[in-house]
Design a protein that fits this description.
Elements lengths: L5 E6 L2 E6 L10 H16 L5 E6 L4 E3 L4 H8 L25 E5 L2 E3 L1 H8 L2 E5 L3 E3 L13 H9 L1 H10 L3 E2 H7 L4 E3 L4 H13 L3 H14 L4 H6 L7 H7 L2 H12 L9
Parallel strand pairs: 2-3, 3-5, 4-6, 5-7, 6-8, 7-10
Antiparallel strand pairs: 1-2, 8-9
Length: about 260
């Protein structure tokens, strides 16, 4: 991938993805969307990548969402504004990804940018970050999952508050409502992110994938049915864990009182 609108680098088992349009508040045009999809495709496909961390360049914005200038140009005969089949950021419609994704919210997260944060599994925010779904103010709606994820994450009334008033909430409010996991001073965001990544990396990657897949697939079922299906192949990631080298390594490491050496196999 060329170093342009999306930057990537690998640090051990972690893929870092940066939306690199700070001059446009990291707004997402067609090229950016498909570059992000490429990055997330790589994350999904490579067994040695265990965690993805996504953020925006600079200190003002995670992402302002869809690039309205690009949308306006498309509406007036310019290049079409396209969203990949995996959704905004290559993530919001990727419902089969069982690896953990962390959003690092280093500024405003609006519209599609906020929807990417909601689609991530964990989110850590700088204290100056803000969140909003202002699409109705431009005559559109949050079709990248925002209208559906929001009530699932924060409840009906609070979701309707954001969807109907288009108000902007602070990082502190987002933390109180359960939209992010942690809020830290901006100067501490990188260190807090590194700490969170290290915490996740302590566990067997296949166990984390099983946890994520079981939770996601089980949410649409009754508790009894979700539990029963643990033994009938409904959760392939759980089956992979049960026959893995890592499950034996974890037991052995515990008995030997040492840190496990995970292989993700």
């Amino acid at each position: 991938m060329s170093e342009s609108k999306v930057l990537t680098h690998v640090d051990g088992h972690v893929l870092h993805v940066t939306i690199n349009r700070p001059e446009r508040m990291n707004a997402i045009d067609t090229e950016t969307n498909f570059a992000l999809q490429d990055a997330m495709n790589r994350f999904a496909a490579e067994d040695d990548l265990w965690i993805a961390v996504i953020r925006g360049a600079g200190d003002k914005a995670f992402s302002a969402g869809g690039d309205l200038k690009a949308m306006n140009a498309a509406a007036n005969g310019g290049p079409a504004y396209l969203v990949p089949e995996t959704g905004y950021g290559g993530l919001t419609a990727r419902f089969d990804l069982d690896k953990p994704v962390i959003a690092v919210v280093n500024g405003l997260a609006m519209g599609g940018g906020f929807e990417i944060v909601m689609a991530a599994d964990l989110a850590i925010a700088a204290d100056h970050a803000t969140f909003s779904l202002p699409e109705p103010l431009a005559g559109i709606v949050a079709v990248a999952g925002g209208m559906h994820r929001l009530p699932r994450e924060i409840g009906h009334k609070r979701a309707m508050q954001l969807l109907l008033t288009c108000e902007t909430i602070t990082a502190a409010q987002a933390l109180d409502w359960g939209l992010v996991n942690e809020v830290v001073p901006a100067a501490e965001l990188d260190a807090a992110t590194d700490r969170l990544v290290k915490q996740v990396l302590r566990s067997a990657p296949l166990a984390l994938r099983a946890n994520k897949q079981c939770m996601q697939r089980g949410l649409g079922l009754s508790l009894e049915e979700a539990t029963r299906r643990q033994d009938n192949g409904f959760y392939p990631a759980l089956d992979a864990l049960r026959t893995s080298e890592d499950i034996l390594e974890g037991i052995k490491a515990f008995a030997e009182k040492r840190a496990p050496d995970w292989k993700a196999r």
